[in-house]
Structure formats: structure tokens, C-alpha cells
Amino acid sequence: MSVEDRVANLEQPFLALNKLVKRTDERHELVAKSIKLLTEMLARHNERFEQVEADQSNADQRIAALADAQIKTEETLVRLQSKTEEVLVWLQSKTEEALVRLSEAQARTEATINSLAQKVDTLADIVQQGRNGNS
After folding, report:
1. Which of 59, 81, 93, 101 has its CA 20 to 30 A from that of 117?
2. Measuring CA to CA, how many Å separate 111 from each of 13, 62, 80, 122, 124?
């Protein structure tokens, strides 16, 4: 076989090999682009995940603060209820005392009015008798 024949026989495989290399390079570029895109997506995912973690931490802190505030509110309400009950008992006692004093004062007033009415009646009788005797 001559050199020309050998070159001719090698030319077809060489062209096929060039096509394979070209397709491999294209695939390599596609894989490189895909890796770059995946890397960018992973970076965005990590940023979002970190933001979610921060938001969750803030939410947890706010929930804890709300729970603490609720506990303090409930404790304050218990204290206020107890204090209100004490004040109501005290007011009831003072009201009862005032009602007793009012009742006593009313009895004295009625006695004074009755006494005054008797005196007015007596005086009216004296005046009436004086008119009857002087006429």
C-alpha cells in the first residue's frame, strides 16, 4: 500500500475523530455552562436560605417576646383582680357602715321631726285655746 493509500485510509477516521472532538468540546462547553448555572443557583439558594434562617430567628424572638408579654399580662390581671376584690370588700364595708350611720341619722331626724311636730301641735292647741278664750 502506498503512502497515498495509507493517507486516504486515515483521512476518513481522522475526519470522524475531528467531529468527535468537536462534539466533545461542545458538550464540555455545555457542561461548563451548566456547572456555572448550578453554582449561581446554589449561591442564590444559600442566600435565600440564610435569609429564611434570619427571618425565622426574628420570628422566634418575636414569638418569645409575645409569650413573655402574655405571661406578664396574665400575672398583672391576677394581681389586678385580687386588688379589685380587696377594694370591693373595703367599699362594701364602708357602704354598710355609711348605711348604718344614715339609718341612725334618719331615725334621729324622724324623732326630731316627730318631737317638733308634737311641739307645733301643742303650740297650735295653745294658740287655738287662746283664740277661743279671748273671742
Report:
1. 101
2. 141, 71, 45, 16, 19
- The three cell numbers of residue 92 are 362594701
Q: What is the rounded CA–CA span in Å between residue 31 and residue 18? A: 20
- d(C-alpha 113, C-alpha 105), whole Å: 12
Question: pLDDT per residue over 66-104, tens digit each?
Answer: 999 999 999 999 999 999 999 999 999 999 999 999 999
Tally the C-alpha atoms within 13 A of residue 19's C-alpha that lie toward its C-beta.
Answer: 6
* Residue reference for cell 475523530: 17
Distance CA 84, CA 91 (A): 10
Please state, in angstroms and rounded to a whole number, the distance separating the CA atoms of residues 131 and 44: 120
The DSSP H or E segment spanning 24 is helix 3-134
